[in-house]
Structures are given as structure tokens and as C-alpha cells.
Queue: 4 jobs
Job 1
Amino acid sequence: DLYRKVFVFRKDPSNAYVVLRAQLEQPLHNFTVCLRSYTDLSRPHSLFSYATKAQDNEILLFKPKPEEYRFYVGGKYVTFRVPEGRGDWEHVCASWESATGIAEFWLNGKPWPRKGLQRGYTVGATAAILLGQEQDSFGGGFDLYNSFSGELTDVYLWDTGLSPDKMRAAFLSLRLPPALLAWKSLSYELKGDVVVKPRLRE
């Protein structure tokens, strides 16, 4: 149970990452991914990387610079411009639905204008899911200068688009619906210089 704990990626740049194991029975037509990060990096870094054999950027949450997030589905991406962080935790949720191609992005409990992405696409189920590195091949192909350094917590993946109430609940760490990946019951493996520590503050 990772309640009130964090993954600390200690080095910059780094070859460290965390492998997450999810039981996906079928491909995804909708999903929501949420996580909380704390870093002082100004270079590009990967937060959440979900690769299939066919597509290395099947789902990717990537931060190319402090005032921008990129949200990839099936190798295509949309950009969300954000205020530069003030050296605090940032909570992001990104959701996508195949039927409309609508991509939602929430930062610290607030929605950004929705964008269109990969309408009619299907996200493959046989996936390598990693925190802290961006995959350029299935489960590997890392660029150390896209690695994450800092702290990550509250990682979730759902096979549905969350309602606005639930998006806000995720930001506030309230009760959430059952998930494919849930922080409180996460199946994970640490690779390289990454450690689990208690959160320093709420």
C-alpha cells in the first residue's frame, strides 16, 4: 500500500524507472490517467509512458518545458499550455474517448479547454507501462535527457473517462472508482535509482 508514499527519482539525468503492471482484458476505447509530480526540472521529461509493440507512444504524458504538457494517444499529441509551476506539487489528469476524439486535461483540479485527438482510435491492451522514462521501443529505448527526476505519487489509470466530480476528487485524494492502476494497490517494480519514501507534506 503506497498511501502517503512517493517514488523518489534521485538522479538527473537518470536511467531509473518504475514498471507498472495492470490487468487489461481488452483494448481501451476510453481512459483517464492521473498522477501527482514534484520536480524542479526545466528540461523535457516523461511522466507516464504506455507503449505497445505497435506504438511506443500509445499513451504518454510528457512535459517538454515548464509551461507545457503534451498528451499523446496512438503517437499523435495535443499540447496544453500551463502557468509555469511555482515549485509545488502538480496534479494532472488526462482523459480521452475514442467515439468523439475528445482529450481532456485537468491541472490541479481545473479543466483546460478540450481538444481533439485520434477519433475512432483504439489503444492496445498488451502494454509496457512505465513511470519516469519515455519509451522509444516496447519497454525500452530511453533517452536519459527525457528522464524524470523528482517525486511522483497518486498514479491511476481508469478504462473510462472520469466525470468532472471524480476529476476533482482525484486532485483532492478523495474516494475514487476502481481502477486498472490504483496507487493504493499498485503492482510495481523499481528499476535503477528510485526509492519509495513517505511524503514530506500533504
Note: The longest helix spans residues 164-171.
Job 2
Amino acid sequence: TYAPKLILLDISDINCIQDVAKEILNCYGCVDILINNASMKVKGAVQSISLELDKKIMDANYFGPITLTKAILPNMISRRTGQIVLINSIQGKIGIPFRAAYAASKHAAVGFFDCLRAEMEEFDISVSTVNPTFICSYHRQPAHGNWEASIWK
């Protein structure tokens, strides 16, 4: 067994994910199970949410998990073993009002990991998606008119 090592990662910061993956692989040599369980959401009408905030949500919920997965995947493929899990959301299957960016990012993630599942079968790598219904999350109350602060993490 290995002693646990705390490695901080902002999954929405795509530029640092490769370095973190290298640090993990250098420390432990491999990753047996990768659980992608990070998320960011905002509640608001489509016309009220900035494109910049839409992009941040897409980075955290789609590009972050796929970037981390792609960084770990070559090691799993070379060992012909591993399990990748995406903890997603029911909103990756259905959209509800006032959650357009969140639902879009979760739909994209489901599509990516569904394709990955089919591709990884030949390498004996298991890819699973979990789509729970609504869950209680940490939330910062926004100041009036401050949509940026209405992000759920």
C-alpha cells in the first residue's frame, strides 16, 4: 500500500491537468481507478449567463474530466487494465430550464464517455457513467446581479 498524497487540482484549469497527472503517475506508477467527480453549475436564464461563464462550466464539467482521462489513459492502455468512472448528472440525459450550460456540459461528457467505453473494450478498461438525480451541493449565494457568484461547486 501507499501512503496517501494530497494533490490539489482545479479541474477547470485545463493547463495544469497534464502536470498533475504526471505527478500522480510519477508518485504511484499507475492509476487503477479514475473517478471523475467534479462539477460546476449555475442557475439562470440563458440570456442572463455570460458566454465566459458558459465556457468555465464547460471547462470544469467536460474538458476537465476528459483532459484528466486522456492524461491517465495511455498508462492504463499499456497495462491493459483500469477503470474510469464519470459521476455525471441526470441532466446529462435531460435538460431543465435555467440550467442550459450545466446540462450541455453534462450531455457532452456522457457522449464522450459512451464513445470511450466502446473504444476501451479491446484493452479491458472499464468505463462507467453514473447519472444521479438531484443532489445537495455546496453553494455560494450571489450578490444581486452577480451571476458569476451563483456558481455551484
Note: Residues 30-130 form a domain with the Rossmann fold fold (CATH 3.40.50.720).
Job 3
Amino acid sequence: VNQVANLTLVSSACDMVSTAYTSTKESHPYIRSVCDAAEKGVKSVTEATASCVQPVLTTLEPHVAAASEYASKGLDQLGEKLPLLQKPVGQIISDTKELVSSRVADAKDAVST
């Protein structure tokens, strides 16, 4: 999970969502009260679940470690094959717009000739 969260694409997307969420909460008092209630509910459920799940996690720890190692190797390979994962969302959007504009310009040129 940490490795996925540290991918530039994922972390920049999370930052964008977090900024939008915070901005929305600050701008709209009714939404803020709903979000605050939801956050408290999620926190309570998380705390209650953590205490119940801990014994199970302790039992499964060797299996989780093996799966984590396997997933980590897979993510490393994916990162090598998809360099896009190392770019922030803003750059990906900009690059995509540039590519589309270039293709449209090429199509216009082809049609006009």
C-alpha cells in the first residue's frame, strides 16, 4: 500500500482530491457538517474494526508478508513498463492535451492538402 501511495501519479491524484475536498468543506457549511459527521463515523468504525481484526492479522502475518513482497515486485515491474506512473496528474493532463492538439493539427493539415 505504501509503495502504491508513493507513486507520483497516485500521490498527486490524492493531493488533488484532498485539496478539492477541503475547499468544498470550507466553501459550503452544509456539506462541511455532513462531511464532519461522515469522518467521525469512519474514524469510529476504523477504531472498532482495528481491535477486532488485530488477532486475525497476527495469525496471517507471514502470508501477508509474502503477498506484500510479491506485490512489491509486481509494482516495480509495472513502474518500469509504465513510466506514466512516475508523472503527476497535472503533467499527464498537459501532455495529453498537447498530444491531442498535435494530432488534430496533423489531421487538419492532411485534410487541407
Note: The CA atoms of residues 6 and 63 lie 23 Å apart.
Job 4
Amino acid sequence: GDSVITVQLTEEDKVEDDVVFYLVFTGSTVQHCTSTRKINPGSLETISPGHDCCETVKVALCASREGHPVLVVAEESFQFVQDEAYDAAQFLATCAGNQQALNFTRFLDRSRPPAADVDFLDEKVALAFRHLKLPAEWNVLGADQSLT
């Protein structure tokens, strides 16, 4: 999630001033509805939502106009893929409370990625973490809450 998506409209679907377009992403367990921004009469853009798993979802481009029913203009598939941010978020969630997991930070210190890359990865891991399916009793300290 959190990437820019551009939608190219067909000649028949060019953007009129009183039409509002939005995208509906339908996955196996979660549905997202996102607004769009008109770039020009033939293009829209939005930000892809974060999702709770890696899967292919159905995306419907919908149009609404006051006084008219909502129309599904087009449908397409969209794939949420597993990346290093998703892997890192799962690793961190699984290793909560595990002192040995801190060795991962030593790896980052040794590899010394550029600061901009670390900031970008941090943002992506935080986004992925927000969408992980975690048990209600999960916490950052793990099972042993006596750690300081």
C-alpha cells in the first residue's frame, strides 16, 4: 500500500466536473474505498491502501453524480505483494520480546544503507505493521512482560 495509482480513462469516461470517481478494492477479508483526484480529463490518481495480506484483489472504478445511481465504470485486478517491509514487519511481530532479534539492528549497522533508504524502509515497515493480523493479546514486549 501507500503507492500512487494512476487510472487512465477511456474516451467515453472522460472526467466531467460534476462526476466523482472512487476506487473500491475488494479482498478476501477487507474492502477499501479510496477517493480519486482528477489529474486531467483523461486521468485520475489515488494512493493505494494498506492491506492485511498479500493477495490479488478486485478493483472497481465507480462514478457518482448527484441525483444519479452509482455506476461501476470498470473492473480490474490489483495485487498486494510481499516485499522486504512486509517481511520485516512479520519478523518484528514474531520476535517481540526476543532479545536475540536485536541482532537484526546490528545487521543494519554493518550494512550501512543510506539514511534516506532507512527512513523509507521505516515508513514502509510501519505501514505494513499497521495492517498485520495480530492476536488481541499481542504486545511489543512479547509474552514476558517483566522486561524493562
Note: The mean pLDDT is 81.
